[in-house]
Design a protein that fits this description.
With 153 residues, the chain is mainly alpha-helical. It has one domain. The chain has five helices and four strands; from the N terminus they run αββααββαα. A hairpin with a 2-residue loop joins β1 and β2. The model has no long low-confidence stretch (mean pLDDT 82).
Length: 153
């Protein structure tokens, strides 16, 4: 019997989509969250600057050898005791824990990540992983594009 409407191919494409699309969306989200560190902002809202950039604070007065690196390092990617910073950004860039058709989980396991992301009594809120209107728009566009290809060979 001839498969005039190509339902067999559609079924294969749907099964492929169920495997591929969650991974694509998880990677898109992860890249969006990592990009916040470059922009020093999330969803169009800039992060509050750090004290090491403010000349009026004691945190600004570092030893001369480290001052240039500390002053030029981005927010949340500072230099710590002479070593490169960026542990939080690296953790976000490896945050995909699960990507299945029923759920996608991105998680950062650093103990201070939640305090930085949500803020607390000592730290201002500097979100890097949260619900985002722009990311939702990007996801919808990606899903729409992928769904449009389901009927192709």
């Amino acid at each position: 019997m001839e498969d005039k409407f190509k339902f067999g191919q559609l079924k294969k494409n749907i099964e492929k989509m169920k495997k591929d699309l969650p991974i694509i969306l998880a990677n898109q989200a992860q890249n969006y969250f990592v990009d916040a560190f470059s922009k020093q902002a999330f969803d169009g809202k800039g992060w509050k600057d750090v004290k090491r950039h403010d000349k009026t604070t004691p945190e600004y007065k570092y030893p001369i050898a480290l001052r240039a690196r500390k002053l030029s390092s981005p927010i949340l990617v500072g230099v710590y005791r002479g070593r490169s910073g960026g542990a939080l950004r690296r953790a976000v860039s490896n945050s995909i824990k699960r990507a299945t058709f029923t759920s996608v989980l991105l998680q950062v396991d650093l103990p201070y990540a939640a305090a930085q992301n949500q803020g607390n009594a000592n730290l201002p809120k500097r979100p890097f992983m949260a619900k985002s209107a722009e990311l939702t728009r990007q996801h919808r566009e990606k899903i729409k594009t992928y769904m449009g290809k389901l009927w192709e060979k």
